[in-house]
């Protein structure tokens, strides 16, 4: 009886670990910004599985560094502001980036500057109809 309980506990623990590695534990996050197309956000899980999200450049209003207070600490994170289709001046959604890796502020600033350069090129480029 005790060995059966122990076997069941080990089995449940292994299943939980597999689920954690496959769906929760993110090993790597990447951001690809192409001014004429959009922004691709990719998360690679510990199991090798990848999750990719694409945001069209027409939906992007801006990229910002946001701050939050968490457990007596200030946390900085990069966000994409999505334009509200009904109100061109408004924001419909805030998409946080790098939530698992939590890069330092100096790293976020480098990524932010690169994103802003691409967004500025898009704004100054002649719009084709």
UniProtKB/TrEMBL annotation:
Recorded metabolic or biological pathway in which this protein acts: Glycolipid biosynthesis; glycosylphosphatidylinositol-anchor biosynthesis
Domain Phosphatidylinositol N-acetylglucosaminyltransferase subunit H conserved: 30-99
GO cellular component annotations of the record: glycosylphosphatidylinositol-N-acetylglucosaminyltransferase (GPI-GnT) complex
UniProt-listed Pfam families: PIG-H
Family the UniProt entry places it in: Belongs to the PIGH family.
Transmembrane segments: 6-24
Keyword annotations from UniProtKB, A to Z: Membrane, Transferase, Transmembrane, Transmembrane helix
Protein name: PIGH acetylglucosaminyltransferase
GO biological process, one term: GPI anchor biosynthetic process
């Amino acid at each position: 009886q005790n060995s059966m309980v122990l076997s069941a506990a080990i089995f449940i623990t292994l299943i939980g670990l597999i689920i954690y590695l496959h769906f929760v534990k993110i090993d790597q996050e990447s951001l690809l910004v192409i001014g004429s197309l959009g922004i691709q956000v990719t998360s690679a899980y510990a199991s090798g599985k990848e999750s990719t999200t694409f945001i069209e450049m027409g939906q992007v209003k801006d990229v910002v560094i946001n701050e939050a207070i968490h457990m007596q600490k200030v946390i900085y994170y990069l966000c994409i502001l999505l334009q509200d289709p009904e109100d061109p001046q408004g924001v419909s959604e805030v998409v946080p980036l790098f939530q698992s890796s939590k890069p330092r502020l100096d790293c976020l600033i480098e990524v932010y500057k690169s994103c802003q350069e691409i967004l500025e090129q898009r704004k100054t480029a002649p719009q084709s109809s």
